[in-house]
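step 4 of 6: structure.
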Amino acid sequence: MQNNTKLLSIVAILLLIFGGLYYFLKIVQPKPLYHQAIKLSLNQLGNNELSLQELKLESTYSETAKSDPKITAYYQAKIVTRNNKVLYTTQVPKEYLFTAFTYAGYQAAPPQSVINSQIELYLPVYKNAEKAVIEDEMGNTIMSINLKNLSTADVGTPNLCGNSICDAGESRFNCDADCQ
Amino acid sequence: MKKAVGLALLVIVIAGLFLSVRKSLATVSYHYRYQILTQGKSYPANTNLEIKLYINAEGEQVNSAATTVTYNTTNLQLAEVKKWNLFELNVDTSEGGVIKIDGTSTTQFSGEAPLAYLYFTTKTAITDLTQVLSVQSGTTGITPLPTGSNPTVAEPSPTVIVSTLTPTTAPTSIQPTAGPTSAIQIPSCPNIEGDGPFTLVIIPDSYTDLAEFEADAKTTVGHIKGNNLDPAGLKKFTFRYSTDLSKDYRVTVNQRDVNFDVNLAKSTQQACAGNGLLVLSKKYPTREASMGIGGFSVMYSGYAVVLKHSLFVAMHELSHALAGVFDEYSFGTQANSSPVSYNCAGSNRERCQEWAEKFAGDPKVGCFQTCGYTNWYRSTQWSAMNNNPAEMNYFNPPSVEMWNSFFAKY
């Protein structure tokens, strides 16, 4: 009986420790800034030949990270911290495969590959981001862009308070109408 | 003795300093090059030449550039030097045949970026531009290595197209890593219905009447939901539309190819917090005007376009764009490779056997010749991935499985 109580106590303490640790890790996990995105424009001049066209902050939603094992030729964009911790990774294919629905009686064509010559990405903005790194599918770095000079000061966010939805970034403190 | 030790230490320190300086120099590798944007390899007299100048800084973060372009004034007349987005430029053309360019950028980067555009007019016929125009290495605040300094001339962007796909057997689709995005209301992007984690943004192209577009968007949502796919899976969608009628997405269909402005559509998708997009285009009023094409999409990308006269093909196109399902009607040609998508079997028909075992209770399932390519095989006579309008609401079991894999990611 006493042994059981002891065991239960140990389990409870362990649960408390791991639960606390999980909660701590969850709250310290960096979150991207609301309704801000780094618009990164690249020209693909050839395979693994990229040139940086534009880098700016925009007041828009950042894109969901994507990957697909069927796409074998792609670039990978990463947002990393000073300590090289990867905050975000997404993939963009080197080529697009266009396919069209064609009615019977008309000449149908197989899917066609088109080089993704102008790549535009909307990457999330993290306060502790140091740089954006573009790699090929083998993990070779093609480009690295310092993000420290990007200022978020000029980028506004739309005021969604009052739309009856407690949007991301809103709370009872800044939008009581939506988040009661 | 003490003197000798002291001297030896001094030599070691100097040698160390020398090596460290050499090492820091050795890590610097950048150069300038130019790309001739004007088509052709030889240019008659009085041709306008457009040339793009690049800086390439590998392995080094830079935010300034400086180079000198030298040209033969007998052959070329300089018209203009234009800045590009990244760099603020100082240009000195006071010396004939020499353009000195200094640029600074607020962005530090490694890799390649455009520095400026150069515009010339040819005074004489030129067969080899490298003989009359060259770019020298300059400084970016770092001493360059001589080996990286030679300019290279590149042809315009390559047009050779190579397939990027390799065969796999398991059905797969876009793998999201972010959480749900649905329950928000965005001005200028009203929700149609649904509150699932995958937000599909329906975008108007060539519409002038918002009420007409709204009605078409709602009809399209009806087509997307009106089929035999798992209702729980279809609830993973949130349908939202853009009310901005002002943008031209440059939808193009002709016998040779289809295209649209992917990046403009993507910017609208982002403004509406979408995960995928479906452009409804009114540009081609009839089937004949669009060469028999009802819609098109980019495989695995989340991007699809449907023409107004064929709204019912929306789910067919989304099947390509989201779930990676392949066409089952005939292209009238044979493939040289094996199918990637699970709804097609290759010429050896091995996958037909797998379908027969897996979907044994389904009387429709068999092994029918042609799955896009005439030497591939499909599992049912008709389905939504074929081109019979009467059968667009039915997905065959392999296609259902591919859609289920897509839904399972959300």
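step 5 of 6: annotate
 - Chain A touches chain B through 70 residues (CB under 8 Å).
 - Chain A has a mean pLDDT of 85.
step 6 of 6: archive
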